[in-house]
């Protein structure tokens, strides 16, 4: 049997508004996240990558994956996760909500087979996430 795990890199959930950033781990500073803005235009790639999913009742707070310290933390985390649990593959949630150049080093750090979810209905758009 093979083991594939589902991972979420893009966001953390908060039922509090405003979020209590100090309750998160390992990212517990407000600066570890993009500023609050909800996505209103899914055709605007900047909004898609830097605004929050969810709503005022349940915010999915967008992690600032442009910060080198956060990228390094994610690389260490995925390598440890796949190694400690003998994971054979990862399925990555909400891939289009993080800049494309983040993914090659993240998946390489995992050391396992990786697939990602890009919810979109245009082949040309999705094609940019392959490879």
Descriptive overview:
The mean pLDDT is 95. Helix 2 runs parallel beside helix 3. The chain contains 4 helices and 6 strands. The chain is of the alpha/beta class. Strand 5, helix 3 and strand 6 form a beta-alpha-beta unit. It has one domain. The strands form 2 sheets. It has a 3-stranded parallel β-sheet with strand order 1-5-6, with no helix packed on it. A 3-stranded antiparallel β-sheet has the order 2-4-3, with no helix packed on it. It starts with a strand and ends with a helix. 18% of the residues are buried.
Descriptors:
single chain, 131 residues, alpha/beta, three-stranded parallel sheet, three-stranded antiparallel sheet
Quick description:
By secondary structure, the chain is of the alpha/beta class. About 25% of the residues lie in helices and about 20% in strands.
